[in-house]
Write a structure and sequence with these properties.
Blueprint: H1 2-14, H2 26-32, H3 36-54, H4 59-74, H5 77-91, H6 95-103, H7 109-127, H8 134-147, H9 150-158, H10 167-172, H11 177-196, H12 202-227, H13 232-255
Helix pairs in contact: 1-2, 3-4, 3-8, 3-11, 4-7, 5-6, 5-7, 5-13, 7-13, 8-11, 8-13, 9-11, 9-13, 12-13
Amino acid sequence: MIFLRSIRAAMIFLTRIPVGGFPYSRKEWAWSSAHFPLVGALLGAATGLVFAVARPVGALAAGVLAMGASMLLTGGFHEDGLADTSDALGGAFDRDKLRAILKDSRVGTYGAAALCVSIGGRAALAAALADRSLVAIVAAFAVIGSTARVGPVWQMVVLPYATDQGAKSRDVTRAGRTQALVATLWAFAGCAIAVMMGTFTWTRLLAMVAAQVVVTIVTGYRYLVRLGGIAGDFLGATEQLCELAGLAVLVYGAAR
């Protein structure tokens, strides 16, 4: 029951989809992070389906609509983290100022620029996949949505938290290496299914994962140096950058 209810908890934490089930125990919240890649795969598949259906209006327009659908499902959860992280790391010169900017709900120049790069970049990269089959497009978005959420889970487990957390977030961050390993297995299962369906090769998927690992390590090191650890917004930023890196590798591989 904890396993199944923690999947619902993960859906509630990452999305605006009303799956109910309240109240959740602290252990169920702690296990929810293990299923972030599964939720990411479902979100990615839905985003890919929107993109595929909207292709007749133009590849780039379909990409923008798909990004809009993704943010509608998540409430812009990860985009908000990217914007706050960019403002904080770009506008602060000490840790106290960095924490203050993270708490500020307003979006500054760095945050706005980062959102343009993230949303526009992902839409443009998605457009490059417009000639693929419906199955291949949905599989690509599902795989990206899944693997991009593994890095933040590992950062949450390995790196210390350096900011105050809300009650729900505090319980989610109680996850350990077991939850991170389960998250990794979810992503691996998604990749294996994509390979068995014939939509991707292991070589391309391993290259995509390698790029996301590099993003996770580099951003984690940067967070540690600048703040002494992570914040919730940092995890959202890592996810967005992993999506960009993953899409870029898939598109590059498709173009060769």
